């Protein structure tokens, strides 16, 4: 029902050429797309996203099993409901194809074995080497999906240092850590080969260079976390965490590991937002960890008075209604809203309208392909004329919805911090030759002046066609297709 968004089409480009690491993230999402599209045999949006949907089902099962293990089956049922009423785990990671899609499953699986470890240790039981091995493997795979997975080791490490220092004498702790190190070593090797470009990029996103408070960023992060994790779920988590300070909802050791795996990433995301812009969904795995305390609290109240149980059921039902409204309302807004909720200025028509990232590219792709073939027959364009773009978006949309239909390579021209993975894709594609012409497609919601942007590479820019796009019977966006003439020089090395 929805086209691929900016991030999703970009991660599709990961899957075109598998690497041990990418500019922005480790390769987990690329593996997921490759596997569920049967090695890109099927490239419809449904297959590109299929991995996230299947992994959401696995995440639901894991939530049930973890909840059942820490308290009882009803707790597992509540945990599964919380997983599916969270916008982060159900929609962002469970419908859209993002690095979070495989990450949340590896996070939950790694958390499960950490819970087993601390419970058995607290009960004075022996720890199977298999438990340590699985912690090492799953935590490593989690990091290979997204570097946030290091917080799993951070939580377990804090638990050992604060409550079970005798585990420091276990050789299996170090074997487990070495397994994780071996699994994630391709990230390090790739970054050594590429001047630590991923390290530099992400450190610039979270490094606090000035202690000037950014109130807007902080408020956006607070409300973003509330929305993404479902305000009703966050209320339940908050109540459970406070209540857990007075009464043991699950075994004390389990309660501690859940808090230590959940709270640090939430605190870090919120803390950094005080000084610079962050993405609220970064803290999503932390809220997933705390779901189990909320589920245990729900079970505790359900076992009590009918009045208390009624409040619990009201909270869960309301959370279910809320996510249903968000999903149905969001799809309706994207597909049916007449015109645009963004700018009405023709040169930047639709700018700031986030719904256009998920609407209209499929429609424009069909129109563009017909227009391209006609221009090819007329001799205006040559077969396979390259498309150039100076940023990874909208380059990735042009890659998926336009270039595939016309067999046109997409080439990135510009700074590596704007091109991201396109700096590496350039190496795998035929380079622009001196005097060669290329196409540039400018959607009005990402306005640009090709003569200025590409002036140092091309002699001139000629507007060939303007396409008007409508939604609900009203204009929502314009696409301008330019012919860039006379390429001047070879593309510089993408890494600098």
From TrEMBL:
The question of whether Transferase is a record keyword is answered with yes
Q: Which GO terms describe its molecular function?
A: hydrolase activity; pentosyltransferase activity
Give the UniProt keywords, A-Z: Cell membrane, Glycosyltransferase, Hydrolase, Membrane, Transferase, Transmembrane, Transmembrane helix
Gene Ontology CC entries for this record: plasma membrane
Q: Name one Pfam family in it.
A: PMT_2
This protein's membrane topology, according to the annotation, is:
Multi-pass membrane protein
Task: Name its cellular compartments.
Answer: Cell membrane
**Domain (Glycosyltransferase RgtA/B/C/D-like) ranges:** 24-190
Per the record, the domain of life is Bacteria
Q: What InterPro entries does the entry give?
A: LipidA_mod_glycosyltrf_83, RgtA/B/C-like
On whether Amino-acid biosynthesis is a keyword of this UniProt record, the answer is no
Record-annotated membrane-spanning stretches:
46-64, 76-98, 130-160, 172-192, 226-245, 257-276, 314-337
Q: What is its main location?
A: membrane
Q: Which GO terms describe its biological process?
A: lipopolysaccharide biosynthetic process
Q: What is this protein called?
A: Glycoside hydrolase
Species this chain originates from: Filimonas zeae
Lineage of the species this protein comes from:
Bacteria, Pseudomonadati, Bacteroidota, Chitinophagia, Chitinophagales
């Amino acid at each position: 029902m929805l086209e691929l968004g900016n991030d999703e089409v970009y991660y599709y480009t990961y899957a075109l050429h598998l690497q041990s690491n990418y500019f922005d993230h480790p390769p987990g999402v690329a593996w997921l797309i490759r596997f569920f599209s049967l090695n890109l045999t099927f490239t419809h949006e449904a297959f590109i996203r299929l991995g996230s949907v299947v992994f959401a089902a696995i995440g639901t099962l894991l939530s049930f099993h973890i909840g059942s293990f820490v308290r009882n089956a009803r707790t597992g049922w509540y945990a599964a409901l919380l997983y599916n009423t969270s916008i982060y785990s159900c929609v962002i990671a469970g419908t859209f194809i993002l690095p979070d899609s495989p990450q949340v499953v590896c996070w939950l699986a790694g958390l499960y074995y950490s819970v087993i470890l601390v419970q058995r240790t607290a009960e004075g039981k022996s720890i199977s080497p298999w438990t340590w091995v699985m912690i090492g493997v799953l935590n490593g795979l989690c990091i290979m999906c997204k570097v946030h997975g290091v917080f799993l080791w951070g939580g377990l490490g804090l638990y050992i240092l604060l409550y079970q220092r005798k585990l420091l004498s276990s050789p299996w702790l170090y074997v487990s850590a070495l397994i994780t190190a071996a699994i994630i070593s391709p990230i390090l090797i790739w970054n050594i080969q590429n001047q630590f470009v991923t390290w530099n990029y992400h450190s610039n996103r979270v490094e606090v260079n000035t202690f000037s408070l950014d109130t807007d960023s902080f408020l956006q992060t607070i409300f973003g976390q509330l929305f993404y994790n479902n305000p009703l779920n966050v209320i339940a988590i908050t109540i459970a965490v406070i209540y857990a300070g007075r009464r043991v909802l699950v075994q004390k050791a389990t309660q501690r590991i859940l808090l230590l795996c959940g709270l640090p990433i939430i605190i870090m995301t919120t803390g950094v937002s005080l000084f610079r812009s962050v993405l609220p969904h970064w803290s999503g795995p932390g809220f997933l960890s705390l779901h189990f305390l909320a589920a245990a609290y729900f079970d505790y109240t359900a076992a009590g008075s009918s009045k208390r149980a009624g409040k619990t059921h009201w909270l869960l039902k309301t959370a279910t209604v809320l996510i249903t409204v968000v999903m149905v309302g969001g799809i309706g807004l994207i597909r049916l809203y007449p015109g645009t909720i963004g700018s009405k200025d023709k040169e930047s028509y639709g700018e700031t309208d986030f719904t256009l990232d998920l609407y209209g590219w499929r429609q424009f792709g069909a129109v563009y392909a017909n227009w391209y073939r006609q221009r090819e027959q007329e001799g205006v364009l040559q077969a396979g004329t390259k498309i150039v773009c100076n940023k990874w978006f909208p380059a990735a949309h042009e890659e998926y919805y336009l270039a595939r239909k016309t067999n046109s390579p997409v080439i990135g021209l510009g700074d590596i911090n704007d091109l991201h993975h396109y700096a590496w894709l350039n190496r795998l594609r035929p380079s622009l030759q001196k005097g060669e012409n290329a196409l540039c497609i400018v959607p009005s919601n990402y306005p640009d002046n090709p003569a200025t942007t590409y002036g140092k590479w091309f002699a001139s820019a000629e507007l060939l066609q303007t396409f008007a796009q409508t939604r609900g019977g009203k204009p929502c966006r314009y696409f301008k297709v330019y012919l860039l003439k006379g390429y001047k020089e070879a593309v510089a090395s993408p890494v600098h």
